[in-house]
Input
Amino acid sequence: MASSSIIYGVYPPKTSVSGNKRLRVQLQIWLPMLACAMVFAVESTSYFGGEHTDAPLRRVAESICGSGVDANWYVIHHLIRKTGHFMGYGLFSLVCFRGFWTAFQNMVSRLQRRLLAHALAILATFLVAGADEIHQCFVPNRYGQFSDVLLDTAGALAMGLVLFRVMAALEPCESAQIASKESVIVEAAA
Output
C-alpha cells in the first residue's frame, strides 16, 4: 500500500484531459500559422493572377481616387499587388513569431527567446514564400519570381524589426510592473 502511494504521488497517472489540453494549446499556437499558409496557397491559384485581380482592384481604386487612375493603372496595379506581398508575408511572420514565442516560453533568457523566435519566423516566412513561388511556376497564368520571395522576406524583416523594437521598449515597463507586484507580496507577507 505504502509503495503504491509513493509511486502514484511521484508519477501521477496521465489522463486524457491533459492530452486534450496539450492538443488544444498546440492548435492555438500553430493553427493561425497553418491558416495563413492556406490563404497563400489559395491566392497562388490561377484565379488570383494579375488578369483576374485587375478589374476588381481597378473598380475599387476608381471609387476611391476617381477615373484618374486609368492613365497609370499598370503601375498602380503592380504596386497594389507587391504591397500585398510585403504586408501579407509581414503579418505571416508576426503569426509565426507568436507561435515560436509561445513554444519557447521556458527559455532562460528573454532576449535569447525573442531573437530565436524572430529568426525562426523570418526563416519560416522565407520557406513558405519560396514554396509559394515554386508552386506558381506550375500554374498556367502565374509565374514564380525569386524577387517576390525577397520582397516577402523583406516584409517579414520589417515587421519583425518593428515588433522587436516595441517589445524592447515595453520590457522596462513589464519589469517595473513585476517589481511592484513583488514588493506588494513582500509587504503583505511582513
About this structure: The longest helix spans residues 146-189. Residues 48-189 form one domain. The chain has one domain: 48-189. The chain has a mean pLDDT of 84.
